[in-house]
Amino acid sequence: MKALTENEQITEGAVIRDMAAPTMPDKSLDSLYRQPLPAKRTGALYSAFPYPTKISPEAIALYIAAHTQPGDTVFDGFGGSGTTGLAALLCERPTDELRKQADSLGLDVEWGARNAVLYEIGVLGSFIGHTLTNPPDPTAFKQAVEEVLAASEREDGWMYEACDPTGAKGSLRHLIWSDKLECPNCRDVVILWEACVSLNPAKISSTFICPKCNHEARLTDVPRVTIQEYDDVLGERRTLRDRAMARVYGSTANKRWSRPATAADLALYEKINAEPIPPGVPQALIPWGDLYRAGYHQGISHVHHFYTRRNLIVFARMWQRVEAYHGALRDGLRFWLLSYNAAHGTIMTRVVAKSGQKDLIVTSAQPGVLYVSGLPVEKNLYAGLRRKASTITEAFETIHGGRGNVEVVNGSSSNVALPRASIDYVFTDPPFGANIPYAELNFINEAWLKKFTDRTDEAIVSPQQGKSIDEYQTLLTRSFSEMRRILKPSGKLTVVFHSASAEVWNALQRAYQDAGFDVECAGVLDKTQGSFKQVTAKGAVRGDPVLLLGPRGVAEYRDEVQGEVEECVWAVATALRRVAAAENDPAESTAQRLYSRLVTHYLTRHQQVPLDADTFYRWYAEFSPGGPCRAED
Ligand SMILES: C[S@@+](CC[C@H](N)C(=O)[O-])C[C@H]1O[C@@H](n2cnc3c(N)ncnc32)[C@H](O)[C@@H]1O
Q: How many CB atoms lie within 10 A of CB 195?
């Protein structure tokens, strides 16, 4: 164990930062990788459809514009919701902001449409990507949305009727349902809302207090009440969680109100219960995998169990109406319905208590999981779909009528039907290990499309799919090898990736090395607000590392690596921290950013990432800024 002097640390830090882009071949690209590139999480293109871990198309457009010429073809082998395709098209009509950003970075850019080919294994992802990059005429889309909404509201609008506290007629905005619990002491049935929720200020307590016997317990230890019910989609009886209406939120003549549920609300629900199930409702058995939780998924075996009966019927009838349209317009309308469906139309919609607020805040489904809370929310589909339609119309307007061509293939990038040396540049962000099982997550929306993802080649770590880190690495290698084959000899590949696990980073590294790529330089993509999983997951990373890879002979690479001298990780970490402090940018000094810098430090030197984020964070917490910095073996 040897302590570094301050001078040694700063000197070494300077060397580290200078070597962040050791072999940057083109100086005009330097600033693109040298400083953190901001990636917004707003705008019509970004917000048109929720898809986990997607990146702002404007940020990707900068990479594409800097690495290619108009008319070139870009490839993404993990296409997701098609953002790389959108970015290629955006190069034809860059926004003022995009132009300014390119200028301020000193990038040598010739604007003009690029073409793109995207491979995406997921049925939902490829549907989103195809529709966004090949949108219907926005005027026809807007008109069709109005037709569908008007017809649906005429027939089914009564289902969202609700009276205000004075008895005046209005409509439902949303309704909070509540699980029923069995008090462990008095065995009485208690509504979770009554035991754990208070308003003014809003609070959801994790402690259960029985309103009847005052017994206290941890909410997680209190059993849920279940009931047996006839399921008329499946034609059989099933056991499900029993729930009660907790609170009704509505509006009357633009005035918003809320109140407890009344007998009229219950009577309306009885009437809805008597409505027949529309024929289009999917009878889809969920192939539960990594996202299944015995607690909150109790009774949920089929897709329709994620819906209240009201929203299931209203949604299914709108889905049926959309069948009357054809081609790109029908795709656009399905896209619109699905953009709201899983995240807002199901019982995954939640309420949260925010400090200083009188009432609970309604939010969408928790991203990246299929979580159902004890207080699920039923939203009015019409209000939300109307809002979504204007965002989607704006997104379609931005893209429609351009000259670039985007082809989206629903298939695995481990087998690409493109000729050798046909692609100018690759931009991609592969799945991050076990972070998100996309196919499982997207199953609800795919059930409406009546087509499901073939998970065989899905490149993830998944205990349920029997895919360990080795299988993950093999699948990544196959995809990177295809990218290597189709890239022109001078072509580059930009990879955005994040993981809190050294094992996952090293699997990625071996995959691109075995495919014949080598890191030329690295940077950080600064998502202005981390995705949910990034900011909450244990050891989460903030700011995704970006790697620029270039083709290179594998044998040549291995020779060089064997000659590398292993560095002491804590000396590197200490030096990076000193440099960040000297830069006076608080974002650079966060533990998360420093871990990203540590990762790219090792990858640019073709060395393995030596430690997980949480080990790094423990070290970071121990040696607080200004405190003793030591280098340890
Ligand atoms: C991190 S996401 C990409 C997000 C994307 N950049 C976007 O804009 O939405 C990774 C994607 O890779 C897909 N995928 C996983 N294995 C694949 C494979 N073998 N071939 C093609 N796509 C794959 C997943 O379904 C997922 O959509």
A: 22
Residue 404 half-sphere exposure, CB side, CA atoms within 13 Å?
A: 30
Distance CA 308, CA 299 (A): 13
CA 111 and chain centroid, separation = 29
Tell me, in angstroms, the distance from the centre of ligand 1 to residue 530's CA: 19
* Of 473, 476, 483, nearest in space to 416 by CA: 483
Cβ distance 359 to 202 under 8 Å?
Answer: yes
Using CB atoms within 10 A of its CB, is residue 236 exposed (0-12), middle (13-18) or buried (19+)? Answer: exposed
Helical residues (DSSP H) of 230-343, grouped into ranges: 263-273, 309-322, 327-340
Q: Which atom of ligand 1 is nearest to the CA of 442?
A: 25
Write out residues with Cβ below 6 Å of ligand 1.
51, 53-55, 77-78, 80-81, 83, 119-122, 125, 412-414, 429-431, 438, 457-459, 475, 479
Provide the pLDDT confidence category of residue 27 given band limits of 50, 70 and 90.
low
Mean pLDDT throughout 403-410? 97
Are the beta carbons of 204 and 196 closer than 8 angstroms? yes
Q: What are the counts of helices (DSSP H) followed by strands (DSSP E) for the chain?
A: 22, 22
What's the gap in Å between 80 CA and the centre of ligand 1? 4
Report d(CA 21, CA 520) in Å as an integer.
7
Average pLDDT over residues 401-414: 97
The predicted model gives 434-458 an average pLDDT of 96
**How far is it, in rounded angstroms, from Cα 44 to Cα 198?**
36
Question: What pLDDT band is residue 566 in, cutting at 50, 70 and 90?
Answer: low
Map tokens 């030596």 to a residue. 610
Going from the Cα of 27 to the center of ligand 1, the distance in angstroms, rounded, reads 31
Q: Look at 222-226, 229-233, 398-402, 588-592 and tell me which has the smallest mean pLDDT.
A: 588-592
- In tens, the pLDDT along 416-438 reads 999 999 999 999 999 999 889 99
Give residue-wise pLDDT tens across range 540-561: 546 789 999 998 754 444 444 4
- Mean pLDDT highest for which of 31-45, 259-273, 565-579, 594-608? 259-273
Relative to beta strand 73-76, strand 423-428 is parallel
Residue 618 CA to ligand 1 centre (angstroms): 32
Report pLDDT for 530. 47
**What stretches of 256-326 show up as alpha helix (H) in DSSP?**
263-273, 309-322
Residue type, 619: W
Ligand 1 atom at minimal distance to the Cα of residue 414: 19
The mean of the pLDDT values for the chain is 90
- Which of 63, 86, 121, 412 has the most ligand 1 atoms within 8 A of CB, as the residue to mutate? 121
Residue in this structure with the two tokens 């609008």, named with its chain if needed = 157
